[in-house]
Amino acid sequence: MPIATIPSRRLSAAALAAVGALALFAAAPASLRAEVAQENEADLKPIPSMAVPLAADTLINAVAQVGDRLVGAGAWGHVLVSADQGNTWTQVKTPVNVTLTSIRFVDDKTGFITGHDATILKTTDGGSTWKLVQYDPQAETPLFDVFMKDANSGFAVGAYSLVKVTADGGETWTTRTIGDLDMHMNALARAKDGKVWIAGEAGHVFVTDAEMSAVQDIETPYSGSFWNVLALDDGSVLVMGLRGNVWRTADNGATWSQSPTGTTASLQAGRQLRDGSVMLVGLEGAVLVSKDRGVTFTQVKRAERTALATLFERGDGKVLLFGEGGVEGALTN
C-alpha cells in the first residue's frame, strides 16, 4: 500500500497545532532539545527479548533444522531450540523483541532470521546465540524472508518491495531498488532450476536469479495476495494465499492452473514431505494434503481451529504444526 500523502496545501487544525508545537520546540533551550533527542534515540534502540516460561506456547512463524536440532522463531523476538525433534523446547536470548518472520540456515552453524523493523539476526553457532546485523525501526517496514546463495551473498525481502542485499556473509546489508515496484514480497523459495520465486500481493509473483540482479514480475490469474510459495521436486511451483487459493505452474509461470482446496481459509505455508506429498497449513487450523504434486488437495480433519503458520516433518515421519499457539502438536503423515 502506498504511503498516504496530503492532497493539498491546506492544513487541518491538528496539523497547525503540530506546526506550533514544532515552533515552540525550536525555540526551547538547547539543553531541553538535546534531552528530547536523547529520549527519541533511546526509543529507536532495540530491546532484547524477555525470557518467559511459556515461550513455546506463543506464536511461532518459522522453523528450520540445523544439524540434529530444530530452531523456531516467532512473536516478541522469541527463538526456541529443540534437541529432541520438537518434544521439548528451550528459549534462547535475542537482541530484539519484535515479531520474527522467517529462519534459514546456510550450514550447520550459520543462519539468519528476519523480522519486523527491518530486522535481520545472524547466528554462527547453530542458533544458540544471535546478533543483530540489520535493524531500522524508522523504516516501519518488516522483512518477511531471507535467501542465501552461499555463505557470503544473499538477500532479504519484505513489505513495499523492500530488499536488503549482503555480500559479506550478512554482516552488513544494503537496500536494493527494484524498478518502480511497490508490492509486498511475502515469502520466497528456490526452484529446481536455481531461480528464486517470491510470493507477492495483488496476485503478483516475482522471479529472480540467485544474485537478485534482475527481477521478473509475473502476474497470475488471481488478484488476491499470496502469502507463500513452494518449489517442488518436479520443477513445478505452487503459490498460496487468501481464501484458500492455490495456483500451480509447471512451465515457469507461462500458464497457471488453480488447485481445488475445499477451504476458504487463508493458507500460510507449505512443505513437500519426503514421500513426495505436499502439505499446506493456514488460518482456522487448516491442513491440506496433496498426493499429486499440488494438482488437487484434501483436507485433514482436525478439532483445533487455531491459526497455523508453518510445519516441519520429523525423521519419524510425524509432521509438527506451529502457529498462533506455538507448538500445536503433531500429525502422522
Automatic annotation (TrEMBL):
One of its GO terms (cellular component) is photosystem II. Pfam families: PSII_BNR. Residues 85-136, 139-296 form the Photosynthesis system II assembly factor Ycf48/Hcf136-like domain. The keyword Zinc-finger does not apply. One of its GO terms (biological process) is photosynthesis. Residues 1-26 form the signal peptide. Keywords: Photosynthesis, Photosystem II, Signal. The keyword Signal applies. This is Photosynthesis system II assembly factor Ycf48/Hcf136-like domain-containing protein.
